[in-house]
Amino acid sequence: MQLADHEAEREHDLIAACDDCAPVVVACAYVTTDAHAPAARTSEAYAWLILSIGAEQAAGTALAERLSEQPLVGAALPASGAAFILTLLLTAGRRLTPPNTPPFSHHHR
User: What is the pTM of this model?
Assistant: First the structure.
């Protein structure tokens, strides 16, 4: 019984951590959209962003329900999502630089 309590506490901590970082991720998505959307298509870009956030939440909720009975698979889901996003950012990083931004330099002055 003690192991089940410990696992429930870890799951609660993970959910709390996700709740804390979700608003930051959404705010970054809005800033990135604002930086990259052409001025004439900003409204459309925000509409697509809102649609994608809603679809992601629905898919995540459906997947979480399926995985709630399998704690090991459920625990691997955030790690695999983080690995996917890291890979995406590393491969698309140059394209995500806002216009008129000087290139990043490793030399500090």
Answer: 0.56
